[in-house]
What does this fold into?
Amino acid sequence: MNNEKYLQDISEIKKMMNRSSRFISLSGLSGVFAGIYAIIGALIAQYILKNYKFSSVSSYETIDHPIDSDLTTLLVLVAIGVMVLAILTAVILTTRKARKNNQKIWDATSRRLLFNFFVPLAAGGFFCLVLLQQGIVGLIAPAMLIFYGISLMNASKYTFGDLQNLGLADMILGIIATQFVGYGLYFWALGFGILHIVYGIWMYRKYEAKAA
It folds into this structure.
């Protein structure tokens, strides 16, 4: 009996330590929505490309044939739209979950989480702009996946450790994509779409469905 109480106390202490050092209110459903937005964005991008009379993805995304500025602007706007929708959804769902957990949405832990996520992501964003400036558009999608994966792995220290697996998968996918220049849109849809949906469903079933 005493041993059971001792183990229970240890478990409670461990939970308290996790709450104080990790932000545990990230919503799994936000990952699902982010994946859906990414797939819709990829379909829109493919439609835009077809209207520019490219017969296939591989025919435009090559190092030797950079795309024109109008097309670049449209694709960048699609990417920004996907990112804004994903962030807004994540903020809304995570705020709701944080209130349910009686956890503050903006404290030292969440600030560390965001800092460790956005610093490598910003570095990747600047690197992608340089690739665009140099006309090396075929490596932009792989670079986005690699830096996004690094950002997730870096941020996982301050939230669920499972996030590290998603980051590792995106990073490996980005490295593989560097060997298939011209098919970046497909890798983009797989990394930001399918992997996010699988990860979001996994997180929701593991942490949120049981508590609902």
The radius of gyration is 20 Å.
